[in-house]
Design a protein that fits this description.
By secondary structure, this protein is α+β, with helices and mostly antiparallel strands. Helix content is about 35%, strand content about 20%. The chain has a 3-stranded antiparallel β-sheet with strand order 5-8-9. A two-stranded antiparallel ribbon has the order 1-2. A two-stranded antiparallel ribbon has the order 3-4. The C terminus is likely disordered.
């Protein structure tokens, strides 16, 4: 049962939000944490989430119980809440049904890699961006790729990305590879993320807002005061979201799925519902009526997602809806 995070104020009218650190000192909260984490790990857990909340002002506005719920989910998966590690993120989400902000559990691609490696079945696991001039050919039938990597790291970093490659190889020799062009990834993000638009255009009531195309956004060709319109993490760190998408596509279709991995994928982008179940939410939505409020401006990564002062994250799932066991994703 969720512990209430509000108390009546001095005149007994509207509830007043309890500070997060004070909230954690409540007996019911400590008992709940001890039940899941326990012992000295409980102190470590408390310290880690206090640090995560203190470095993210937007997270401080969230319902306290939702923060603990998201963090406990990460703890059960043995992942760190540190934005710098990028294993998972607690992302603020404006829950209009509850009339408050709640923390959403967002799995980072680095956390996905950690969970996969723990199975002990992977000999190799990799995902990376392919730069302009590097790709010689990719044969999807035989899953063979030929590239000529740019050797100078600084030069490679500056080169434009043309696609994404992911692969894994098991200890028994089984191997799978996947390559997507950037145009395919852009189409994927445009289709599944409500807050992302590769071509730009008008949106909001009466079409009173206008977003530039992603190409223009990458080139910095947009008014800085309109930054709030680009809160989706597909804008903030396209590569990180692309890596997550590639790993989801690869592992969910052909990878060995431990119980931890299955749990992580089915709870990604979820909040705890009043009845204790996990409820999927689309956290990359802006709220134009409240412009220019950044509800999920991420800043994360690598952040990854990240972790946004640490900025506010935004989360897009990164995989096809039919791969989520009953959940409808906006990936």
């Amino acid at each position: 049962m969720a512990v209430k995070n509000q108390l009546a104020n001095s005149n007994g009218n509207r509830p007043q939000k309890v500070g997060f650190t004070a909230y954690l000192t409540q007996d019911a909260v400590r008992a709940n944490v001890a039940k899941v984490v326990g012992g000295k790990n409980g102190d470590r857990f408390m310290s880690a989430i206090i640090s995560a909340v203190n470095t993210n002002p937007a997270l401080q506005e969230c319902n306290n119980a939702s923060i603990v719920s998201a963090a406990l989910l990460g703890e059960t998966l043995k992942l760190s809440p540190s934005p710098q590690l990028g294993q998972y993120y607690m992302v603020p989400f404006e829950d209009k049904k509850r009339g408050e902000k709640v923390a959403t559990f967002i799995l980072g691609y680095k956390g996905m890699i950690q969970l996969a490696l723990r199975s002990g079945q992977y000999k190799k696991l990799n995902v990376l961006a392919i730069k302009d001039g590097e790709l010689i050919r990719y044969d999807p039938l035989n899953e063979e790729i030929e590239v000529s990597m740019i050797q100078d790291e600084e030069e490679r970093e500056k080169a434009p990305t043309i696609g994404y490659y992911a692969m894994f190889e098991y200890l028994n020799g089984f191997r799978k590879t996947l390559y997507w062009s950037k145009s395919k990834m852009l189409a994927h993000a445009d289709r599944y993320s409500a807050a992302f638009s590769k071509d730009g255009g008008n949106f909001g009531k009466g079409g009173r807002f206008h977003r530039v195309s992603f190409a223009e956004y990458e080139a910095g060709k947009y008014p800085q005061q309109d930054e709030w319109m680009y809160s989706s993490f597909w804008y903030k760190d396209f590569d990180a979201m692309a890596y997550k998408t590639m790993l989801r596509q690869l592992i969910s279709k052909w990878g060995i799925m431990s119980i931890e991995m299955q749990t992580a994928l089915t709870t990604d982008n979820t909040i705890e519902a009043p009845d204790g179940s996990r409820e999927f939410v689309q956290t990359d939505q802006y709220v134009p009526e409240q412009e220019p409020t950044l509800i999920e401006d991420q800043g994360q990564p690598e952040p990854e997602p990240a972790p946004e002062s640490v900025p506010l994250q935004v989360a897009d799932p990164g995989f096809e809806p039919d791969q989520q066991e009953g959940l409808v994703w906006e990936d």
